[in-house]
Structures are given as C-alpha cells and as structure tokens.
UniProtKB/TrEMBL annotation:
Organism field: Siansivirga zeaxanthinifaciens CC-SAMT-1
One Pfam family, short name: UDPG_MGDP_dh
Pathway: Nucleotide-sugar biosynthesis; UDP-alpha-D-glucuronate biosynthesis; UDP-alpha-D-glucuronate from UDP-alpha-D-glucose: step 1/1
Keyword Oxidoreductase: yes
Keywords on record: NAD, Oxidoreductase
The protein's name in its UniProt record: UDP-glucose 6-dehydrogenase
Protein family (similarity comment): Belongs to the UDP-glucose/GDP-mannose dehydrogenase family.
Domain UDP-glucose/GDP-mannose dehydrogenase C-terminal: 333-448
Residues at the active site: 277 (nucleophile)
Catalytic activity annotation: UDP-alpha-D-glucose + 2 NAD(+) + H2O = UDP-alpha-D-glucuronate + 2 NADH + 3 H(+)
EC numbers: 1.1.1.22
EC top class named in words: oxidoreductase
Binding sites annotated in the UniProt record for NAD(+): 10-15, 35, 40, 91-95, 132-133, 166, 277-280, 347
Length: 467
C-alpha cells in the first residue's frame, strides 16, 4: 500500500521533529501533525522560527523547507485522522501519578483516548503506528479498542519506537543507527510493515530498517533505554570510588571504552541522567517485571534509578559540605538547567533536584541557562510542591547573562554541559565572586587545572584529586 497522507497525533519533542524530517524527505507524502494543545500548534506555525516549541539544532531549516508544502500543523484532529492512510500516535506516556502502579507504570490514558478517537472517526482502513514508547503488549489493547469501537474498518497496528536523543534529534532522524518496525506476522500485517518500510526507505539504507514482531519491537525500546541509562549509572557508581581513591573517572572511562566489547559512548560521569525517557521507561520495565512476579529482574533494573538519585543528592551534599557545612543565605550560581546541552527540555533534569535540596538548606540560587525560560524553571520547582511559589521566587532568580549570575556568588555549580560555558571569561568571573570562589563541575567539562591557576577551588565530579 502506497502511503499518500500521514497524520501524527502529538506535536511534541518526538512528533514535531520526526514528522518534519519525514515531510522533508518525502515531498510526495502529505504530513499533518495534530495536537490538542493550541499554543503548541500556534508555535509550530509561527513565522518566527525562533519560536518553534522545540529547540533542536537544524530543525528550523527543515521546518522552513517543508511547512506549507507538505507539512502542516493543526488542531483539527478528526479531519487529519479522516484524511490519513497512516496514523502515528506520538503522545506522552508519563509515569502514572495515581491509582494502581502509581509512580511506576506508564500512564496510557492519552494513548487510549487516541485509539478511541481514531476508531470513532475512521471510515476507511488505516495503519496505526505506535511511535510513543509503550509497555510490551500495548498493541493488543489498542487493537482491541479499535476493533470493538470502530466503524467496521480494518486496522493494522505497527510498533515503530523512536530512538532519537534530544539535542541531536535532526541528526539522529536523518542518519539513524536503525529504524525498528514491528508488525503482525499475517499477510495484511506484512503489507502494513512494508508500507512503513517504503516511507523510511526514501532516505534510510534498507539494511538499517529492521522488521520484527510487535512485541519484540515494543520491548526493544524499553531495553535500549534501560541499557543506556544503566551505563550512565554504572560509570557514576565508579565516579564515587574515583573520588575516594584518587583515580579520575575520565581516565577510567577512556581506558575501559577502548575495549571494543565495551565501547566508548555513554561513559561520561555526570550529576545524574535526566530527560523524559530514562527514568520513566525503567520504572515501567520494573513494573512489568513485577507484574510477572519477576522480582529479581525488577530489583536489578531499579538499582539504575536508585544510583541516579544517589548521584544527584551526593552532588548537592558535597556542595554543602565544602561550603563549610552551611549554604544558608549563600549565593550559588547554576550554570545550566536543561537535562543536557542543545535542548530547552528540562524534564527530570538533575538541576531540579539539586536546586530543591539546596533551597531546602536556604541557599540563594541564580540560574543561567542559554535556552531554558524563566517560566519553565519556576514551573519545574512548583511541580515539586516542596515550598510555596513565592518562596521559590524569592530564593531562586533567573539571569540571562552569566556574568550577572555569578556576581558576588560563593560558588558555581555546572549542571548542564553547554559548550559556551567553556569559553567564558573565567578570570572576570573569578574577580567578581566572593572568596574563596568555588566551582563544582557536575559535568566534567571545565579545565579545572586552568581554573585553579586563576584561584578557584574546583571540585570535578569523579576526580579524586581534591575531594
Ligand atoms: P511531549 O509531551 O513533548 O508531546 C506529546 C504531545 O501529545 C503533547 O503536545 C500533547 O498535548 C499531545 N497529546 C496528548 N494527548 C493527545 C490527544 N489525545 N490528541 C492530540 N494530542 C495529544 O512528549 P514527547 O517527548 O514527544 O514524547 C512522546 C512519546 O515519545 C512518549 O511516549 C515518549 O516516551 C516517546 N519518546 C520520547 C523521546 C524524547 O526524546 N522526548 C524519544 C523517544 C521516544
Ligand atoms: C534518550 C535515548 O538516548 C534515546 O535513544 C531515546 O530515544 C530517548 O532517551 P535523551 O534522553 O534525549 O535520549 O538524551 P541522552 O543523550 O540519552 O541523555 C540522557 C541523559 O543522560 C542526559 O541527562 C545526559 O546528560 C545523561 N548522560 C548521557 C550522561 O550523564 N552521561 C553519558 O555518558 C550520556
């Protein structure tokens, strides 16, 4: 079946960039991205490309090329479903905050609402593609809803998880390591799989397009994120040992990463992993394991999260200890709030937990992040509900200039690895800080030897030389 029109429900960090790239690479396919969030759709349609709701390097150019040609952003979900041969579901699947599985299971209410809406609207056969990350066997629930509430039309369900990482989304979409498509093994299932293979084959080499059964595809996504997060927690666990023994985590990472069986990527010690995926997907995996009575498996993966929480708390504890056991009334500057560089996304950013811990010790924080807005930062703190909004606003200030943010500070904490931090005038920063001037590098990006020559007292995560 040749796909002429694609609809994508959910214009977020995945739906927006993914569909923009499909539209750019497939000018013969009409791509309509829909969302119930009106302001998000308005931002995707804004003539000022700086106002796109998702910041990703290179995305503005792609949107500029395809938007209005074969890429459309709309709030008219019904119309887009009706028009499309293939419907991607790319809505959020957050951790449940209520009821059974609270704090662990994925909340599938948005997925179910989409399935019911597709069933209600569709008058012709459709291929429904799970783009969101879902627990293994969700496709059977979607199929059930579609078959029992639909208008008698045929649906094929495919699983096509997205492996892009934020900050490199465009690059990852243009040149993915692989595209994974899971589908039914029936003849109709094979036809549906082939339709989606044909879409990707417009720019991706065929040998990188992998097809599997639906359950393998769904589970591979959770597995990939669990393995990646596990590497970060493993190296972070070693960073503590480095600090105690005088070893250096960057040297250890390099030494083990040169073993081709281990590989060099994803071995950068940090203040902890963040982002909307790792924690949510591992908790989901833990929940699935528990629901099958596989407690040892559940415990094994849960340690990845426990280690990550430890790393975040350890970082703020260390700041307090080194600032003579009190940060009350002291000004601490945060460089970075995003969960990683080159994104404006702050979901599960370690900066939030570190700030919350320090604010509870009555520190005054000033934040500088090149892409994250002031409203976002306050919203992140308000969501925790640790203190009133007024208290958050009086204890934490947001600055749009790093030199103002560091003026009269007792300490600087690097929470995100933005490249520009390396090129600051550190002498000027030092001159304007209170002494002794401390730097806590939670991302291991600064040249601490140079900073120490200026006069800073530096604490580099995972380096045993000063801690
Ligand atoms: P997001 O929150 O940025 O976007 C989801 C969008 O879906 C929101 O704009 C929301 O308004 C919309 N939505 C929800 N219900 C809707 C409905 N019924 N009709 C229309 N629109 C609806 O989320 P995201 O980061 O894009 O993630 C989406 C999915 O992709 C999740 O399952 C996530 O786990 C997965 N994923 C995310 C990433 C990532 O880097 N963010 C990477 C791979 C996979
Ligand atoms: C992740 C997966 O990489 C991606 O394949 C999936 O589709 C979505 O989840 P993302 O969360 O966007 O992507 O970014 P990623 O680069 O994986 O980083 C996640 C977190 O781990 C960030 O906070 C990052 O700073 C941290 N990290 C990553 C480290 O601390 N050290 C590393 O070596 C790598």
């Amino acid at each position: 079946m040749k796909i002429k029109t694609i609809c994508c429900i959910g214009a977020g960090y995945v739906g927006g960039p993914t569909m923009a790239v499909i539209a750019q690479k497939c000018p013969h396919i009409k791509v309509i991205v829909v969302d119930i969030n009106e302001s998000r759709i308005a931002a995707w349609n804004d003539n000022d490309l700086n106002k796109l709701p998702v910041f990703e390097p290179g995305l503005d150019k792609i949107v500029e090329e395809a938007r209005g040609r074969n890429l459309f952003f709309s709030t008219n979900v019904d119309q887009a479903i009706d028009e499309a041969d293939m419907i991607f579901i790319s809505v959020n699947t957050p951790t449940k905050t209520y009821g059974k599985g609270k704090g662990m299971a994925a909340d599938l209410k948005y997925i179910e609402l989409c399935a019911r809406q597709i069933a209600r609207v569709a008058k012709q056969d459709k291929i429904v593609v799970e783009k969101s990350t879902l627990p293994v066997r969700t496709a059977s629930a979607i199929k059930n809803i579609l078959d029992h509430t639909g208008n008698g039309v045929q649906f094929q369900i495919l699983s096509n998880p997205e492996f892009l990482a934020e900050g490199t989304a465009v690059e990852d979409l243009l040149m993915p390591d692989r595209v994974l498509i899971g589908g039914d093994t029936s003849e109709a299932g094979k036809v549906a799989i082939q339709s989606l293979v044909d879409v990707y084959a417009n720019w991706i080499p065929k040998e990188r397009i992998l097809t599997t059964n639906v359950w393998s595809s769904e589970l591979s996504k959770l597995t990939a994120n669990a393995f990646l997060a596990q590497r970060v927690s493993s190296i972070n666990a070693m960073s503590v040992i480095c600090e105690k023994t005088g070893a250096d985590i960057d040297e250890v990472s390099k030494a083990i990463g040169m073993d081709s069986r281990i590989g060099s990527k994803f071995l950068k010690a940090s203040v902890g992993f963040g982002g909307s995926c790792f924690q949510k997907d591992i908790l989901n995996l833990v929940y699935i394991a528990k629901s099958y009575g596989l407690n040892e498996v559940a415990d094994y993966w849960e340690q990845v999260i426990i280690m990550n929480d430890y790393q975040k708390n350890r970082f703020s504890d260390n700041i307090i200890t080194k600032l003579y056991n009190t940060v009350s009334g002291k000004k601490i500057t945060f460089l970075g709030w995003a969960f990683k560089k080159d994104t404006n996304d702050t979901r599960e950013s370690p900066a939030i937990k570190v700030a919350d811990n320090l604010l509870s010790e009555q520190a005054h924080i000033e934040v500088y992040d090149p892409k994250v807005t002031e409203e976002r930062i306050y919203a992140d703190l308000e969501y925790l509900n640790t203190r009133t909004n007024e208290e958050n606003r009086s204890l934490l200030k947001v600055q749009n200039n790093p030199y103002n943010a560091t003026q009269n500070s007792h300490a600087i904490a690097v929470l995100t690895e933005w490249d520009e931090f390396k090129t600051f005038d550190w002498q000027k920063i030092y001159d304007n800080m209170l002494k002794p001037a401390f730097v806590f590098d939670g991302r291991g990006i600064l040249n601490t030897a140079e900073l120490e020559k200026i006069g800073f007292i530096c604490y580099k995560l995972g380096s045993g030389t000063r801690i």
